Structure prediction request, 776 residues.
Amino acid sequence: MATKHHVTPMLDELENGPWPSFISGFKRLRDDHPDARINGLANGLLGQLEHSYETRKGYWKGGTVSVFGYGGGIIPRFSEVGNAFVESKEFHTVRVQPPASNFYSTDMLRQLGDSWEKHGSGLVTFHGQTGNIMFIGTDTSRIQHFFDEINEYGFDLGGAGPCVRTAMSCIGSARCEMSCFNEQAAHRHLVNNFTDDVHRPALPYKFKFKFSGCPNDCQNAIERADFAVIGTWRDDMRVDQAEFKAAIEKKGRQYIIDNVITRCPTNALALNDDDTIAVDNRNCVRCMHCLNVLPKALGVGEDRGVTILVGGKRTLKIGDLMGTVVVPFMKLRTEEDFEQIVEMAEEIVDFWAENGLEHERTGEMIERIGLVNFLEGIGIDVDPNMVSNPRQSSYIRMDGWDEAAVEWFEKKAEKAAG
Amino acid sequence: MALEDMRPPIETGCPDGFQYMHPMMRRNFGLWAYHEDPQPGVLLHVAKSGEKVWTVRAGTQRILDIFTLRKLCDIGDQQADGYVHFTIRSNIEYFVTEEAKVQPLVDALNEAGFIVGGTRNSVAMMSHTQGWLHCDIPGTDASGVVKAMMDELITEFKEWNMPNRVHLTTSCCQINCGGQGDIAINVQHTKPPKINHDLVANVCERPSVVARCPVAAIRPALVNGKPSLEVDEKKCICCGACFPPCPPMMINDAEHSKLAVWVGGNHSNARGKPTFQKLVAAGIPNNPPRWPEATAVVKNILNAYKADARDWERVGEWVERIGWPRFFEITNLPFTKYHVDTWKGARNSLNASTHIRF
Prediction:
């Protein structure tokens, strides 16, 4: 053993209790791994983390590290207390894009693990909050070798900094009956169209795509994504009356009334005298609740597509913003559909790159310039589905009203004519 | 490496997930009929073709050492079909196509120390950030908080005890990378940054730091003859936004960086529209290594929710139904002037009606 083990009385307390302990994992790397380099990295990391626990302070600072040809994708970490914890004084994270919908074979997991054991600390997270595989802990000299190795077998860096970020998609059509589009195809069509913007940070701030197959939005897309793609459907929901009756038999009429019928946010459900269900599909807002409770009896319709919301983000700097509906519905089946959504995303990213201030997310830009200016900038018409209610304030100049009204009726007639 | 040895990257971007999918799931892609929940931690999905796949979900320590990763792979090879999926909350999922394989897989995971659960109306794995372990701006640790808390909530993860699913999140600064949660535990700084004036000029691009402040409390200043920055401490909201672009704006404080608890964040459109979380408790000590005070607040809220909420109500929906006064009454948490919003749009959060529960 090259150096003495750091004493970690506080971290040791995190080895107690039934939940799997990350500290025990670090110690395995320190004590049981055959490679002295990995033993040292784990020892240094444990030492610095204990120091953080004792002083209640973090000791990592950023820097500039990347791989040849790219500008981002690495989270550089240099220790401010590297003299005391020499083995881990450089401890960079490599952000790698996972396969769409986070699928792996155990063979591929092992291969990634082997590469990381060769070039890094042997610590990895599936996945970070942006959606990347986080290979945690290596030094500047090894990053290029690690990247070259995994890049050869099909993996590429994710985004870090002011750029298009790694995207996330739910398990969707691969396993879920609620799924309304091919999440993996949409994910890869969009993000892989922006690889240059992923790898070479040159945008005002981060830009995130997230894909959820239905309005349950398991990927938190509306809350967190600049460009949220959420599956939905336009026709009637699927109803299997025999299964509905079976559910009443099993759970009781009262349960179905309390947990299905009366929980519909638009009162679009009714229980008939013969224990069948009546659905007012025109007033259903596709909230998913009744489908979630009765997935056998009720299901998504056949005329499926997506709703697109733009501008979701967390606090910094003007406060939390949900995404706003920009496209109430579009089909996402054919190559033309995918081309159309990619073009729309390009319009949005370009407009924001031109008009966004430094460190301003799309949602903040929309807040600053107004939704209408944003829509005009990207060439999308206003639609009543974009608002919760029309304006309340009379403080607006409206001398263009007549033209706007004419335009509305013309567009409506155009649409009716097909 | 010399420049001529440098290998240009292959810009493939996001890999195709299909090559790593279970063949049965590839066959039935987009052709699913329904699902059932046979037992906690296990899902059954039935395709229109009649084919079935059982998913077994397990919680891990999230930061996996290579030994643990290989152990997870071994279980996947020996007890399942060699294909896995990770959920958004970093749980691992295995797939089997024969019911007889489910229990041996569950047993193997439990045997190896992983925790099967996290489905349906359970307390899900906490989504969290890097913290002291790897972040450059953290006020606390993340993995440690989560480990300590999940030790206490393990039964709620393994069983279906809750009115609906409960998503917990934790974040080490107010940027809140952990995201919205039914219950979120986030750092809340309570003092303005201490400025290291010797370093500002060399380390920080001062106009960017001035621009970053949400309340325009920072301005350029000459301190001890050096160009630096100063903070109007009356205006400062102690958010820490100036710290990432300018580390000499030292916001993290061993004593005054506290934890706050927020409830009612919900990403789903089910029943109501998605919601952001609201402040319920603050001033909680940042107390490593096991943060018992924060865990106690979370358990208190969870117990009240479990006892009082109706089936399918998320935490936020439950509070909306019973009203905030009742929430503070039954959790015995103080309601203070800090709970009344002051930010843009704050008036929308005030009660402009006579709707009051007596």
